[in-house]
Structures are given as C-alpha cells and as structure tokens.
Amino acid sequence: MTQSTAGRPDEKKGSLVIDFDDNQLLSELFGEHDRHLARLEQELGVLATSRGNELVLTGTRDARKRAEIVVKDLYARLKSGLEVTPGEVDGAIRMANAPKADRERGSGSNSKLQITTRKRVISPRSPTQGTYMQSLLDNELVFGVGPAGTGKTYLAVVVAVSMLLQKKVDRIILSRPAVEAGERLGFLPGDMREKIDPYLRPLYDALYDSLPGEQVMTGLESGEIEVAPLAFMRGRTLANSFVILDEAQNCTPVQMKMFLTRLGENSRMAITGDPSQVDLPLGAKSGLGDALRVLEGVKGVSTVHFTARDVVRHPLVTRIVQAYGADESDLLTPGKYKGGEKS
C-alpha cells in the first residue's frame, strides 16, 4: 500500500486513525457532502469521522480493517491520477466484503488490473471481475456466465477495445441472437437493420462508454467494428478479431457450434450469458449450457462463473437477483409450492 497513508490505533478503544499526506485529495476521497463516507458507514458498519488530514474509523476490529482497506485503495487510486466515483466506492467495498477465499483471490495481481480505453480506465469491482478480465487477456475462448448486472458483456467489450487500440487485433465483432423475448420482429417499424438494432443496443452502449462517439461511428463505417445478429456469422472465418457473443443462452446448440467454429487465426472469443434467462421456445435446448458441458476441460477455454455478489448495478438489483435465485431454488425442492399450487 502507498506510503502516503498511515493507520494507527486511537486511544479510544475501537477506533483507528488514518493520516493522509495530501489534503487536496480528501474532498474527492470523501465525496460531495461526505457521501462516500456515508456509503462506507452504511455498508461496513463503521463510523467514519474526518478531522483535518485524518479519518477516524470506529467499529469492530473486522469492520475497521475492511474500511481501512477500502479507504487506502481509493486514496491510492486518486494518487495515481484516477477518479473515484460512487461506482468505484461500491466496487472497493464489494472487494473488502467478499468472503475470505474471494478476498485472497482478489488480493493478487487481479486486484490491481486496469484496462485503458480512450475514455476510461476500468478496474475490476469484484474478485470475479478481476479473474474474468485476466482470463479475457490470457485465453482464446472465455465463457462469462452469471446473472444480469455483473459486467460480463461490458468488460468483454472494454478488453476488446483495449486490444484494438494496442493493435493486437484488427477488428471487433459483436453479436447476439435475435430471439424474440415476447416481442414480434414483424411488427417493429423499419427495415431489417432497424428491426435488429434494438437487440444489439447494449453492445452499442458498451462501445460508446469506451470510445469517443465519432470513433465508434468511424469504426462501424469502416468495418473495424462490426455489430451483427448471430445468423450473419454463418460461413465466415473471423481472423485477427476479438469476437463477442452476448446473450448466448438464447442460441441453440447448432448455432453455438457454428459460432465457435468461426474462430480464426490470431482471434479471441468471449461468450456471455445468463442460463436463468433463456428466451428460447419452451423445450428448446440452450446452446450455452451445452457448450459449457462439451468444452469443459478443453485447453485454451476458460469459464468464469458470476454470482449475485458480483452484481455492480444498483444495490437493489443484487437483492432482486438473490430473491429470484432463492425462489428458483425453492421451486426445485420437493414439497414446495409452485404457482400457488403444491408441486
């Protein structure tokens, strides 16, 4: 940890004092109206009091230790010239609050991993995100599997943009299966491109968060960045590319095999999906689950599983994911009620 902070026990039992050597950074560290400190107190169960160039943390030994880790990590981020947003605060808290095994896994090089794009410097906000980002850099084929809001697609796009900027690949190809989730394509206005675009919008959003708008438009026009439905991949060999298949739970095993065999020389693939949100017709088999089974243990293939603990959206989203997960587990338990009637 940086030498610019120091922690020492206070005379009052249950308190820890952290000294800072740059008062100008404290307003950013503490947040507007001390909102970052308020978040620290809410999530870690400590009392955080600022006095001059010091921060006093009061609470249990474990809570103080976790809060100290969060504060020093965020301060080091500011010292390196990066910003501290509410999202970064939540990410640091999530790292500190992770189970011991996950904290130990995240305390290595993954916790310091940073991906640089033209607009932002992105760091992992959970131990699993760190593992996922490193896997995307190290492996030719990576499956990111888990609930919505864990950053699976966003981080894959960020790594793809970084590799494009470093000239490690020549283009980015983003794809999704255009499965109708209760909607009907035929009733949407416009030509086929305009009908398909709403299904690909999350991929565009991640691109615009990583690159200036004009560069995204230029890339789309030149073919350096391609966004297309899964059906458009058939018959192609995708070389020197970073290829991402999003919402992979909505492709069939035949489509998945077709997509995976598009991988060409000097290319990488990221396959993301949530097995609990399959929109395929009732009884249809998901290609994502099938691929995870078939490719388990294959050299060059990495699978990273996200859980509700890795959700980086609004805290309520985490609780929603956990509630649905518990409900689905109950439905599989003999004797539990299903749809108002006992199963």
The CATH architecture term of the largest domain is 3-Layer(aba) Sandwich
Indicate the percent of residues in helices.
40-55%
Number of helices: 12
Gap between N and C termini: 55 Å
Task: Please provide the count of β strands.
Answer: 14
Order of helices and strands: EEHHEEHHHEEHEHEHHEEHEHEHEE
CATH topology of the largest domain: Rossmann fold
The biggest sheet amounts to: 6 strands, parallel
Task: Give the neighbour order of strands across the main sheet.
Answer: 9-8-10-11-7-12
Any overview of this molecule?
There is one protein chain. The protein has helices spanning 26-30, 35-44, 61-79, 86-97, 100-106, 127-138, 152-165, 192-210, 213-222, 253-260, 287-294, 315-331, and strands at 5-9, 15-20, 47-51, 54-58, 115-116, 121-122, 141-145, 171-176, 225-229, 241-245, 268-273, 301-305, 337-338, 341-342. With 343 residues, it is α/β, with parallel strands linked by helices. The protein folds into 2 domains: 5-97, Ribosomal Protein S8, Chain: A, domain 1; 115-312, Rossmann fold (3-Layer(aba) Sandwich). The chain has a 6-stranded parallel beta sheet with strand order 9-8-10-11-7-12. The longest helix is centred in the N-terminal third of the chain and has 19 residues, at 61-79. It is globular, with a radius of gyration of 23 Å. The protein starts with a strand and ends with a strand. The relative contact order is 0.11. Mean pLDDT is 82; it is low at 181-185 and 337-343.
